[in-house]
Amino acid sequence: MQLFGVTEPLWRLAAFLSVFAAMAMLELWHPRLERPELRKALKARRWFTNLSILVLSSLCLRLIFPAAATGAALWAQARGYGLLPALGIPPVVAGVIAFVVLDFAIWLEHVVFHKVPFFWRMHRVHHADPGVDLTTALRFHPLEIVVSMIWKIAVIVTLGAPAAAVLLFEIVLNAAAMFNHANLRLPPRLDRALRPWIVTPDMHRIHHSTERSETDSNYGFNLAIWDRLFATYTDRPRRGENSIETGLTTYGRSEPTKLIWSLLLPFRRD
Questions:
Q1: Nearest Cα to Cα of residue 113 among 101, 128, 123, 127
Q2: Cα 131–chain centre separation
């Protein structure tokens, strides 16, 4: 798929690099938390592990699903599959519907990955990160990435989602995840203005709290409506934004920064 003569992988890569660079600079200028795991040597270890997991997950995904989500949309479109084309919905409207439904599907998937033990074994790799910054948004075990793509493709084909909408959704979802995981201090007025619409860093950091009641809330990655709609929204952490503890206390602060340990975590029985 090409837009303005640029292929889909290049669009995604350019968007990823731009957002990553912007969030990295903002984290340096306006950090919310200043702790050992977010500074110097320990931060470097975390970044190496998290970015290595990203590379492995991306390679795994490309080997199993070479065309990924956008390719699935093009495949379904060429065959006329899906509810949206069957109902004769105009492409622009279909694109908006597909974007919103896909966002809900990712929210629902996130809830399931917390509630079902089999899926939690994979997803805990993400939550084991002792610090929360933009690289945490990239720390998803390859198995979880594959399962997530299967679910996403099923939704895309069922909907008959327009390929352009799927590409836009993938870019926005990735950018939103890096934004709301960033160790970033937003001005309070801006945070309050954004929260009804999109997930902010202070809002999502609560989901990474060591307190179970807080972890079981704020599942959204992009649109903020779903947690309010399904009563899983927490406004503020009990300890406050500057004192919140993140990660999984079961594994401490050092082990999750190791690459091999993180890759083997889904297979541990504890």
A1: 123
A2: 16
